[in-house]
Amino acid sequence: MYWILIGGTFLISMLVSWRFKSKFNKYSNEPLSAGLTGRDVAEKMLRDYGITDVQVISVEGHLGDHYNPANKTVNLSPDVYHGASVAAAAVAAHECGHAVQHAKAYAWLGFRSAMVPVLSVASQWMMWIIMGGLILLQMTHNPTVLWIGIALFAATTVFSFVTLPVEFDASNRALAWLDNSGITRSREHEDAKDALWWAAMTYVVAALGSLATLIYYIMIATSGSRRN
């Protein structure tokens, strides 16, 4: 049963990832009628929201775009930063959506940021603890160490689900602004919406995959407890 769930989640994840990259490549070749680059879009959106303490910079990597609340920077990959396409506009506006969330103290973003210190510890140690717990479970039938690892893994799973409203809200803010500012026309707006929807789906699948793995570990620990 579990392997069907995991296998299905993996296949769906691969499909969604492929679909998102396909959509991004398609809309990267669709020129933006406004003629603005991703950098232009980002800087204009920040100005329109009265945000003056956030810098838009270019970073290396493909699809590595993100907003860093620690140093207040909108980090755009070269294709987005220099690109004057529908995809570049959508991604740039989305990342600025996170900056707007930060400026307006959006609750879910604050919650996610507060979890980062816990996640840094959990992600560093959880797999080692889980591996050790699995070995001890086989040797001693004592699941205590495994439960500790499961607790750490549960924290990462919660984080993945907390990320969902943050990502969807950032996309909604981006699309509303792109429409109200007149940067995207009717067809361009629908294409930008499509690109951001598939990007959001990658987070949804990741969260579900994390939940499926968490359930698997819980089943192992519970089974070990019963044998004990």
Describe the protein's architecture and organization.
- Helix content is 77%, strand content 5%.
- The chain has helices spanning 2-28, 38-48, 78-82, 86-103, 107-140, 144-181, 186-227, and strands at residues 55-58, 66-68, 73-76.
- A hairpin with a 4-residue loop joins strand 2 (66-68) and strand 3 (73-76).
- The chain is mainly alpha-helical and 228 residues long.
- The chain has a three-stranded mixed sheet.
- The chain has seven helices and three strands.
User: In which range does the helix fraction lie?
Assistant: over 70%
**How would a crystallographer describe the biggest sheet?**
3 strands, mixed
Strand content: under 5%
Radius of gyration based on Cα positions: 21 Å
Tally of alpha and pi helices: 7
Mean pLDDT: 92
Strand order of the largest sheet: 1-3-2
In whole angstroms, the N-to-C terminal distance is 24 Å
What class would the helix/strand composition place it in? mainly alpha
